[in-house]
């Protein structure tokens, strides 16, 4: 299935911000971007367009971007569809009652087992004290997914519990690099539903708005981290110290500047476009700050300075 019109519009806006205009080159005049996109997706193939893509550097790059975005769209759609179409049996499953610990009624049988448990406990306790707790990649990923699930299953009348859960990402920045953008977007959707459920209570509704704003910020960071891994092989530089947001405006604090060049600026702009409902982003670092605004296609600009985005060729 092809992407929706809204997705097409968002894709064109993102690509117009990060793709320089085509120049006349040895390959001849470049076809319209829509023709290239249709050819790549297979909705309207054209041999002439295919030949041009293989010889034109700029159009080839554009076609590669379209393929990447199409793969991302298909992957996220498949994930959301799988969740939405889950079905659970309403018929209870009855199992035969059994007594797995009946052998414990004999105390003599417990002696070797208790000795074995004591040895295992001693070894684990010694290793824990020697090494200490840590968050490895797998543990961090499981913790991030678990946090999203707990927020989704929380009581709409107790938003403070979800706020405490989100503090895990602030207290353990390593979790942020393990969270998936689609998973955060799903949690955001559930939080919006919880906010609507308590719309009559202004205090509860405002608390859910702040939680939704933070999730939007972490979704933005997750998109950027994913794009960095695809392009550079490594995730976001530095760690996210804090995230605040509400009503489409977010502020993200990093312990070091995540931007090292114009390529990072393009990735930040693309991440802002991929984060639904986002209007304005402020990135704070120890030395400077950056701003992205939907009014100028999320071009990255230094606060109070000229745009940091790489100039387009004339």
What does it look like?
This protein is α+β, with helices and mostly antiparallel strands. The protein has helices spanning 5-18, 33-41, 47-55, 57-84, 110-131, 137-152, 159-171, 181-197, 202-232, 262-274, and strands spanning 240-246, 249-254, 280-284, 289-293, 301-302. Strands 1-2-3-4-5 form a five-stranded mixed beta sheet. The chain is globular, with a radius of gyration of 25 Å. The chain starts with a helix and ends in a 12-residue tail after the last strand.
Tell me the strand percentage band.
Answer: 5-15%
Q: Can you count the beta strands?
A: 5
- Give the uncertain stretches in residue-range form: 22-27, 129-138, 304-314
Briefly note the structural class of the backbone.
Answer: alpha+beta
| Termini gap | 37 Å
Global mean pLDDT: 76
- What is the count of helical runs? 10
Largest sheet descriptor: 5 strands, mixed
Biggest sheet: strand arrangement: 1-2-3-4-5
Order of helices and strands: HHHHHHHHHEEHEEE
Q: Could you estimate the helical fraction of the residues in percent?
A: 40-55%
Dominant shape: globular
Our Rg estimate from Cα atoms comes to 25 Å
Keywords:
5-stranded mixed beta sheet; alpha+beta; 5 strands; 314 residues; single chain; 55% helix; 10 helices
Summarize the structure.
The protein is of the alpha+beta class and 314 residues long. It has helices spanning 5-18, 33-41, 47-55, 57-84, 110-131, 137-152, 159-171, 181-197, 202-232, 262-274, and strands spanning 240-246, 249-254, 280-284, 289-293, 301-302.
């Amino acid at each position: 299935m092809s992407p929706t019109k809204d997705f097409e519009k968002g894709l064109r806006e993102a690509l117009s911000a990060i793709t320089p205009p085509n120049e006349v080159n040895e390959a001849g005049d470049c076809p319209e971007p829509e023709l290239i996109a249709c050819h790549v997706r297979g909705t309207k193939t054209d041999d002439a367009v295919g030949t041009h893509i293989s010889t034109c550097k700029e159009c080839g790059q554009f076609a590669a971007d379209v393929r990447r975005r199409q793969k991302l769209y298909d992957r996220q759609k498949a994930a959301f569809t799988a969740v939405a179409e889950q079905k659970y049996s309403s018929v209870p499953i009855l199992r035969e009652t059994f007594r797995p610990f009946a052998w414990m009624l004999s105390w003599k049988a417990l002696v070797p087992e208790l000795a074995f448990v004591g040895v295992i406990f001693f070894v684990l306790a010694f290793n824990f004290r020697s090494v200490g707790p840590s968050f490895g990649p797998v543990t961090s990923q499981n913790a991030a997914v678990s946090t999203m699930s707990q927020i989704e299953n929380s009581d709409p009348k107790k938003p403070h519990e979800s706020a405490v859960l989100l503090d895990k990402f602030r207290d353990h920045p390593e979790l942020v690099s393990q969270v998936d953008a689609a998973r955060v977007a799903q949690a955001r959707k559930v939080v919006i539903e919880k906010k609507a459920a308590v719309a009559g209570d202004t205090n509860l509704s405002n608390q859910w708005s702040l939680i939704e704003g933070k999730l939007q910020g972490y979704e933005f960071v997750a998109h950027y981290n994913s794009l960095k891994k695809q392009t550079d092989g490594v995730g976001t530089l530095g760690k996210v110290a804090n995230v605040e947001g509400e009503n489409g405006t977010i502020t993200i604090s990093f312990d070091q500047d995540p931007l090292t060049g114009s390529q990072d600026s393009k990735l930040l702009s693309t991440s802002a476009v991929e984060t639904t409902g986002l209007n304005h982003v402020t990135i704070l670092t120890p030395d400077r700050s950056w701003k992205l605004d939907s009014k100028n296609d999320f071009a990255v600009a230094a606060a109070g300075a000229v745009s940091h985005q790489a100039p387009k060729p004339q």
